[in-house]
Amino acid sequence: MTVSLDEMTGIQALERTMPDIAMKPGRCVRVEFEYIRHGTQALIASLNVATGRIDQATVGDTRTEQDLDTHLRALLAQSPEAPKIHLVMDCLNTHQSESLVRLAAELEPEPLALGVKGKSGILQSMATRAAFLTNAAHRLVVHFTPKHCSWLNQIGIWFSILVRKLLRRSSFKSQAELRAKILDFVDYFNRTMAKPFKWNYTGKPLTA
After folding, report:
1. Do the Cβ atoms of 1 and 148 come closer than 8 Å?
2. What would the DSSP string read from start to end of 29-54?
3. Are 4 and 155 in contact (CB under 8 A)?
4. Which terminus of the chain is more solvent-facing, meaning fewer CB atoms within 10 Å of its CB: N or C?
5. Residue 95: Cβ within 10 Å count
6. Distance between CA 19 and CA 109 in Å, rounded?
7. CA 178 to CA 38: how far, in whole Å?
8. Residue from 141, 24, 147, 145 nearest 86 by CA
């Protein structure tokens, strides 16, 4: 099971002050440029690389360590028998958190001594936690994208689809409406559009 995960923060619930002007022959839809702000939402999304589906989407006010833990537990509950779980994420501090280490440890066949956060053992520092999470011997293995290379994560492709298909031209009267429409779009995408990305690079060779 290979999952591409990331957060999309600061999604604005913008209400257009006037309705769109419908398209006519030779003229595209015209969207009102003035808007009313109704706050923001944060999206945590997990893309199943093998199927192209969004297996888990969480929309809320924050994207804290606890939010990620809740999201991942809901994701893993869908595939309790998966022998191996690969998570592709960037190097955000919440992706190297105590709660994620504890979640990974729970999936191991034998109890592990994790130490004390900030003091000792696996939990001592972000570096020790990252080393534990990337250990290929564990059932849950995290693959961190290099710094400044989060574009390597396939979930970014799906985020661009979300922006183009829903967020860019829509009007939302509240945060609740924004949240509901994002989740509705996830359901629609999974039913009608989801397929594995044919992900390749045919341009100039990448150099350091």
Report:
1. no
2. -B----EEEEEEEEEEEEEETTT--E
3. yes
4. C
5. 21
6. 57
7. 10
8. 141
Task: Count, in order, helices (H) and strands (E) of the chain.
Answer: 5, 5
How are strands ordered across the β-sheet holding 54-60? 54-60, 35-48, 2-16, 85-89, 140-144
Q: Residues of 56-81 as b/e, b for ≥16 C-beta within 10 angstroms?
A: bbbbeeebebebbbebbeebbeeeee
Distance CA 6, CA 166 (A): 18
Residue owning tokens 């709660």: 99
pLDDT tens digits in sequence order for the chain, 208 residues long: 999 999 999 999 999 898 888 889 998 888 888 889 999 999 999 999 999 999 999 999 999 999 999 999 999 999 999 999 999 999 999 999 999 999 999 999 999 999 999 999 999 999 999 999 999 999 999 999 998 887 889 999 999 999 999 999 899 999 999 999 999 999 999 999 999 998 776 767 766 5
Distance CA 81, CA 170 (A): 40
Reported pTM: 0.90
